[in-house]
Design brief:
The mean pLDDT is 85. The chain has a single domain, classed as Na+/H+ antiporter like fold. It has helices at 3-21, 29-51, 54-64, 68-86, 90-95, 97-125, 132-142, 148-156, 161-190, 197-227, 232-252, 257-276, 279-306, 315-343, 353-359, 365-372, 386-408, 410-419, 426-443, and strands spanning 380-381, 384-385. The N and C termini lie far apart (51 Å). The protein is mainly alpha-helical. Keywords: Antiport, Cell membrane, Ion transport, Membrane, Sodium, Sodium transport, Transmembrane, Transmembrane helix, Transport.
Amino acid sequence: MNAWYFLCFLSAVAIFIAFANQYLLRLQTTIAITTGSVAMSVLLMVLVKFAGNDVAEYITQAIGGLNFNLLLLKGMLGFLLFAGALEIDLHLLRHQRWEITIMALGSTLLSTVLIGYGCYFVLDLLGYPLPLVYCMLFGALISPTDPIAVLAIIKKMNAPDRISVQVEGESLFNDGVGLVVFTTVFAVAFSGEAPTFGGVAELFLVDAVGGILFGAVLAAVAHWLICRSNDPSIELLITLCIPTAGYALANMLDISGPLAMVVAGIVIGNVTRGVGFSKHSQETLSHFWHTVDAFLNALLFLLIGLLLVVMPVTWAEVGLGLLMIPLVLAARFISVALPYVGFRKFRQYDAHSVKILTWGGLRGGLALAMAASIPEHAVKIEGVDFHTLVLMMTYVVVIFSIVVQGSTIAPMIQASIEAGREPIDPELLAAEEAVAKLSHSVSK
């Protein structure tokens, strides 16, 4: 069976799990799909190992034949980030631009360093002496957060906009920033040359700034074309060119495709949507990209769970992954709490903001794709392949964050809703009221 057919069947399985979840588990959809796919993985492993089932063996081989790194980093990620950025409200984003910028850049870098050093000391203590640069590589790939699962819960519970914007804005931007940091550390770790501050800074800036500028150019071209088109179908197809040809070109230019998609999505969603689309076309645009986003997320979270069948699972590596969970959470808490010490000097925030941003900072497919991109057999630690070790540790952290953190975030959000009745920053409140009035007038 070729890869395309296999992905088609996997998509159907993901949608079936989502359908069944409505009547059985009634969990948030991505959490249900991940949980179901992990259970399927365990069943396949049992059938292969103890029953020698040919069908299970065939499915396992098909899963192993998929290039998850290529599928996500070079394909699906562009669609997911563009679709997510389309829904960001620029009016609210502007009032929290400094918070989101500092957390997306500063908190991601701080988390990378904290996890890198923590991983270095933990592994050395347990008899896995690993050079610091490789530990930083793990810190870089596990620091970016995934907004998908927790945002669905936030929207379902009607959490305050200021919380939703913080989580969504930071997560979308730190995906791009995290990938740039990972690419930079990766180049230092495997280039074989001694790193210099100037070389690392140049690599980082070219990737990040280049991606942002390229995203603005893509948005400008798409805006011009959409405003001069009279065909709603052509307008929609133009937006489709951004995460396809635009994302591919960014990767070919060696600049940050994820940051380009976020910038382009925000511009199209907030500027072009209002002047280049009719009211009916705006609804079509939202429905189309919401459907694409939901479909690809269902497939992505199914693949995350199914990756277990091709993991070289050992109890030692699972144990190390479990030790990484508190380390990653502690680094996330510190990297979020420290900026809030400064934020609170200028504005009043919900008392539960740091808790939600910490516990709601889920890890997902991006972390696994980056871990999978590390070369196999390039580095050995006490006879253990570094690629295998990092992939297993990453997988344990990702599954814990999606299933455990994602399914227990609701009480914190409820507390945030109740705290929302308390006085908040007048400027931010005025912005939220203005957006609400604008949305009401547009709907009329």
